[in-house]
Prior knowledge:
Blueprint: H1 3-40, H2 51-64, H3 74-92, H4 97-132
Helix pairs in contact: 1-2, 1-4, 2-3, 3-4
Amino acid sequence: MEFGDMQFEWIIAALGIIGTIAIIAFVVAFLIYGFCLGLALGPVNGRNRGLGSTFVTAFFISLTYLILLIPFFGALLFCIAIILQWYIIKSRHDVGWGGAIVAWIITIIIVAIVVILLVLVIFGGLGVIFNLIPVGP
């Protein structure tokens, strides 16, 4: 085994780990978004608020977030993808454009609150655990 081969294997392993973390993050974000979209459709009187329907909508919306991975034009295309997200919510849940936009905004607010609470619980819990474990002299 040569020195160059070891570096290449290390890079492949690192990319595999990063890819696995990205897939896990995508699935967790998809699940959180699905539940929050169901809650957000309540105030706008959206139909098809069952878990199956909202998770299918959340899956399509999650796919539009992959546009951000495109270099250079990803952010520009994401502006178009936001309109596509509104259209998906509008067509799948029988609300108007205004209702779709309001449901989308409420969903983002709920998701932000959930993520902040998860970070506080996880990292706050880790802080408590690390404070209980004595570290060196």
